[in-house]
Structure formats: C-alpha cells, structure tokens
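Below is how a single chain appears once it has passed through the pipeline. First comes the sequence as given, then the structure the pipeline wrote out for it. We keep one example in the README because the format questions we get most often are answered faster by looking than by reading.
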Amino acid sequence: MKSLEKKLLVSAIAVILSNGMVVGNSHAQSAAGGAEGQAASGASDTSEGQTSSAKATSGTSAIKLKPVMVTAQRVSEQAQDVPIAVSAISAATLDVKGFESIEDIAAFTPGFNMYQSFGRTLDRPIIRGMVNILGQANASFFIDGVYVEGDISGYDLSNVAQIEVLRGPQSALFGRATFSGAVNYITKLPGNKPEGGFSLQVGNKGQEQVRMNYSAPLSSAWSFAANAYVNKLGGLYHNSVSGKDDLGGQKTQSVGGSLYFHPNSSFDATLRVNYQHDDDQSPAYYRYGVANSNCFGTPTGTVYAYFAPIYTNGPNYCGEVKVPNTFAVNTPAFGLSGHDAGLRNNILRSNVELHYYFANNWTLTSTTAYNTLTNYLGIDQDYSGIRGFGGAFESFSSQPSHDFSEQLRLATDQSAPLRGQVGVYYYRQGQGNGYKGDLTGFDLAPGQPGNSLAPVPVAPLTPGATVENKAVFGMIEYQINDQWGASVAARWGKDTIGQAGLDSGYLQIGPNYTLFTRAYNDKANFSKLVPRVAVTYAPQPELHFYASLAEGNKPSGFNQAVQSAALTDASRASLIAQGLSTFKESTSWTTELGVKSMWLEDRLRVNADIFNINWRNQTQTISVPNQTQDGKVGANSYTANIGSSRIRGLEVESEFLLSRDWLLNLSYTYLDAKVVNNPDPNLLYTIGVGNAAGQYLPAVPKNDVALGATYNHTLSNGWTLFGNADMFYQSSRFGTTSNINWTGASTKFNFRIGIEPRKGLRITAYVNNAFNNRTTENILGYIDPSQLIAYPNRQTGSGYKVGYPSDVAVTAPMPRLFGIRLDYRF
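Resulting structure:
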C-alpha cells in the first residue's frame, strides 16, 4: 500500500474511532433537536420535502416519514398515489449515503441493475431483468424529462434534486427507449436567496474530488445557479503489458448553470446548460482463452482446414468465472500510434423549459432541448495481451452526434376528479463526420516500442445513422369516488430510422495498406400505438392498491456492421441472407399488481409489487465469423432477434423511522427470468440442444437485497454525529443463455461516519466495498481470436465446423475505496 493510502486509512480510522467514543454517550442526551439534526446532516431536505425524515408534531414527540413527491406521470403528485412502481432518491439521500454514480443508485433501488461491462463506454440500465448488450438500451435516462444520449455515469449528482426510477414500460408518457423503464434526473432550481457550498474529497486509488455550487437571485424576477465538478480516480488495476496501473481510471470535469425567470404567478422559464468532459483509461477486463477451457471440447491432436486443430466438440469455460490477479491489455500500442486507449467524451446538454399557468389551474409546458456528444473510444477488443487478428482488434474511433427535441404538453387541473394531459413530441438525432482505424501491422510486442508500418492509417467515418421520432400522447384519469380511480394513457409514435454514408477502412495487404470503401443507404419507417391502463383502490387513506397493464416497444433497426467495407461481397451477402442486416421490433406486455402503504402512524412505509412480462422478438448480441478482403477470417458483433422470454418478479421497498435518530431502509427483488424460445445453433455445442428454452436470462440476478441504516444525533455540545451502513447482496448471474458459467454471489458493505461541528460544516470518513469483494462485475460471452479450431458439425451430423472457439471475458469490479470528505455550505 502506498504511503498516501496508509495515511488516509489511518486518518479515516482515527475519525471513526474518535466518533465512536462519543456514540456511547449520545443516547443519554436529550432527544430534542434530533429531527433538526437529521435534516442538517443530509438525511432529509426540509426545504424541498423530497425525502423521508423525522418530523416532529408541534407540542408532541410524534415523528413520521415525510411525503414523497414525484413526477412519474409528468405532473407533481405524491408517490404513494401513483399507480407506478417508482423509487425516488432525494438529494439528501444521495448526500448522506455518499452516492457518486448511477451504479450506486441502482444498488439501492429494487428491480434496477447497472454493470460497467466496458467502463463508461455504454451505460446499460437493466430494469426488471430486461437485459441487452449492444444496440439501443431497453431503459433510458432523462434529465428534467429530456432524453439523454451517451454517458450518465459521470453526471454531477450535487446538481440533482431528486432521481426517480420508474419500473415497467413508460412508453406512453416518456416515449423513446423506455421499453422496460425510465430513470429521470430532476435538477435543482435556483433559490430565492444566496446560497452555495463546496466539497473536497481525497482517498486511496488516486481519488480526488472537488465540487462547487452557488445560486442567488438577480432581481425579484430573475435568479441563477452555477456549479463545477472535478472527479478523478486513478488506475485501479495493474497492466502487465504496460507495467503500469493504467486500467480502470476515470476522470470527469463538468461545469453547468441555470437561469430562472419568474415574473409573475402565471409564467416561468428555466434555461439549463451543462458541459461534461470524460477522460477514462481502458477498463480492466480479461479474456480466459481457449487454453483455459474446461468443458465440452478437448483437442484430438490432429488438424483440419486452415491448420485448425480438431476438438471433440466446441470447447468452453464452465463454472464460476473469477476475476484474475493479472490483467493484460495492449494499452501502450495506442499511445505509440498516436491514438490513446480508453474513453473520451465531450457532452453539451441544454434545454429551455417554459410553463404557463392558466387561471383555471391548467398548465401548458414547453420543453426544448439540444444536445451534442463527441465520443472517442480506443479499445483492445480481444481483451488480452495478444494481437487479435494481427492488430485489427485494437481499434479506435471518434464520431460526433447531436439531437434536438421539442415537447409541448397541456395538463388540466390535477385536483379535479376528471383530469388529464395531452402532448406532442418531436425528436431528431444525427451524426457528424468522424474517423476510425485499427492497429493492424503495428508492433505490439511488449518491450519493443515502435511500429512496423507508420503511420497508422485513419479512415473517414461519415454520418451513418439518423433517427426521427414524431409522437402524440395523452392520459385521462378519473377519481370515481374516495376509494376507486382509473387511468388510461397512450402514445402513438412514428420512427424514421436510416443509415446512409460511405464506410471506409484500411486493410494491410502485403507490405501496404489499401483503402476499401462501401456505400450504403437504408431507411425504414415504423409506427406503433402503445397503451397503458391502471385501476386504483384505496380502502384507507394510507393503503393504496393498483393494477396495471402496459405495452412497451423497442423499434427495429439496422446493423451497420453488415455494411463494413472490410467484408468481402460474399461475406456481406451471407450476413444479409442470415437476416442480420436488420432486426425486428421488440414488444412486451407487462401485467402488474402493487400496494403502497403507510403504517405505525406514518413511521413505516412499505411498497410492493408483483409483475409478469411477456417479451417478444427479444434482441441479443451475437458474434458471427466473416471473411475480410485481405483474405483473413474475422468476427463482428450484431444485434439479432433471438426469440422470446418471460419474466416474473417481486419488488419490495421499505423505510422505517425507528426513532428520531435512526432510519432503516430495505429493498428486495426476486426475478424469475426464463427464455421461452431462443433458437441458437451454437447451443448445440454447449448444452447439447439448439434452443435455450427454459434457460435463465444472462446478467440477471435472481435475488437482490439492499439493507441500510442511517444514524443522526445532536450532541449536548451542539455538534451533530451522523453515519450510515449499507449492505448490498446479489445472487449469482449467468454469463450467457447457455447457463454454463456464472459470476458467483456478491455481498458488499459501505460505511460512512462523520461530524458536523457547526451548521454547514461537515467532515466525513467513508469506506466503500469495505471487505474488498472481488466478484466478477460482468461476463461477456465472446470468442478467442488467437486461432481457428474445428469440431464435429452437430447441425448436419457430418463433417466439421470451423470457427473461433467460444470464450468468456470478465470485467473487474470496483475495489475497496476509502477516504475523507469535507463539506461547507452557506
């Protein structure tokens, strides 16, 4: 352990022990002021009322949980009244629990998982077990109701007032890419008085973080807010190829602001702008390789065509796939070639939101957004220290994109028994000119810097994809009487999806590079009406039942990789014949029954739901060998329809205000996620049948538990002592639909403890993943590109099948992180 890390650990322990010495006497102190202390420590946010906290009734000692307000149906209402499974994580909860990213939020929320399979390259929210690897996600992120393209993991959470996780199809009101759910970040509005703050955080593994924010009124009608954020995380894992800790590091810098105009009670307008830059190292991943295969196939000692050794069957890896102690990723070659390994993002997000409030309590809302994203990615796609396909797997690319959206929505008086809303939506996303290349022919040998063919050729990447969406949506709610209510929501949308351009790429043929090009132009229209109906029943004011039926859809699309200029005409024709040039629309129907309840005089909140999802035309990423124009055999990944699945589940979310000082929380998810039909010939070489029917969906845990305890107490000297302990358990997850390998179960603990010697000043010591759990973050079913192999063709019953052996790549988890944080607010 480095000297700095030792000093930080000693300091953290000292803070914890010194606070621990006063804990024993804290319970003997007066309970007066306990509720205020909890608010001061960040366990509640009384100004915005968006989190649970102790609340003292005047003249009594009664305490209760605060009501939670959400915008899950595009209007503000109490979460307990909404017939949607929604979790609301307030700014205060984010603060007191030390949540830094969406991965922390997911671990805390039932039915929600996030795994960084490729670092922050692709944020893949998994809601209710509806998983996919590539292509459009099944759930999407929104910021202030605006659809987000690109990274959300690096977004500054100090600018967030509340995060709402909506589970189940949200297509009717949120639209695009909400097939399984939606996650909406609601940012803070500028205040009506000067206020601000900053925080400093340091820790092991190169942790450095600075946050600053300030808001103030400019006049009676104008106010503004500004924030800045820098977050660094050093290399987490050692790379044997480079000899450095250059795997897993992350860096984010962002600056943002908002301008709020409220001239009278009838109108207000908010302008929001945020710029974010990400600069990440290559993720820490490891591919096992055919040499470590332990099931299904053994070499016979003979060879077949292409000098491929013959195996008795297609070899694979079975059992628990563990994270290795050594990683080997070809990061040095990227730098030598002038193209870095890792991720670079430049993201600009902006929107203008207007509200006009009519005298009859109707509201007209306009939201206009424009966002840009420039993404660079240099990645060693064979996930090892070898030269995959002679360097072709060490690839890099950069391409800008932009999107524009406009939503106009009219909502009626939400206090009326018959109420509703109607709106129109327009979205367009396009791409700009970029570039791409790989390190074919580049010298990757460790200890031998330089290149055999310089410079590495770079091919232009012209605009290749556009998406245009037009939609009309609406909802009607009717409160039949004090107990019964019903609602109907629907959206009709039309997607125009296209890809057009000129794919270019260099291939090494002999001693020279040759540029290949292929023009393509594909366009298709897809339209769909998606409904949602719900019925509510409230036998008592604090006991609400609901039942809902909702359809979700995920539009069709194209596999641009089929148009790769590197492919031979015959190989491209074969891919098209296999139906891989496009993939069909995915649909689902979700039936849900839920209960939302308050108990023990509003000190205990228990919400639960059960659901059934029928998922049709499910998409999955598959790897298919192909012939390239340099005479080599390669492989690409494609999105394909692989059949249907059925998911059943139970979600429970609970908070218990044990006393003025203690708040407990529990979330639990049970998922039974089974494949109904999945014809896949590759399964003949693993599970022995060509269909995955009955197998469990990959990357989906059957059981997921989060337990937390938050403590807050004001001492007799006026200081506040606070802390929290969280435990996250997740059962093992399968790597692929073959179910022959898995991650193993994971249990992680986070601890925080701190003091607030004066209002607004806090010192916190923390440790995340305290016992350094090393369970595999994720498993990617892959191939070993080091050699072709041959094995008996079980599809035809005769001859041999030649291809690359199946393999698995694993992603390393976040290791134990500890440190100290200083916060000052004014």
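The domain at 3-825 is CATH 2.40.170.20 (Maltoporin; Chain A).

See the next section for the split statistics.
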